[in-house]
Amino acid sequence: MLAVLQDDERGAVVELESGRLSASVKRLDDHVFEVRAPGAKVTLRADKASITITPKKVILLEVTKGMAVVEPAVGPAIQVPDDHKLEIMPGKAPGLPVPLREVRHVLQKLP
User: Fold this and answer.
1) With left for phi above 0 and alpha for psi between -120 and 50, is residue 75 left, alpha or beta?
2) How far apart are CA 43 and CA 111, in angstroms?
3) Which residue, 5, 68, 99, 111, is the most exposed by fewest CB within 10 angstroms?
4) What is the DSSP string of 8-60?
């Protein structure tokens, strides 16, 4: 479920409770694109990224181009760079971003 909380000259703020959001964000210094999810706030400073909220409220962030800043409910803020993925489990501090190419490489080797 997606709800738009703000959409004006300062930027956009949306709330994603479940499902997947894919976004292409134009880089503007004075505008923000913020996604509020259960357990984290994600500010996209990216050209292309996706956020998935699983049924168990796990947040999966994939930045394919650009950067995102994640402020989890537990732990410090994390920058997720270009071509990286971050997983946030409910009630836990996230680990470090993982390169997407490593994830794709492992998936290609699976039978």
Assistant:
1) left
2) 36
3) 111
4) ETTEEEEEE-SEEEEEE----TT-EEEEEETTEEEEEEEEEEEEEE-TT--EE
Q: Quick one: tokens of 69?
A: 């800043």
Backbone angles phi, psi at 78, to 5 degrees: -130, 135
Q: What is the DSSP letter of 67?
A: E
pLDDT of residue 52: 95
Does residue 11 contact residue 34 with C-beta atoms inside 8 Å? yes
5 SS3 class? strand
Q: What is the pTM of this model?
A: 0.83
Q: Which amino acid is at 5?
A: L
Percent of the chain with pLDDT over 90: 59
Query: Torsion angle, CA of 41/69/26/102, rounded to 10 degrees?
Result: -110
pLDDT tens digits for range 34-71:
999 999 999 987 689 999 999 999 999 999 998 999 99
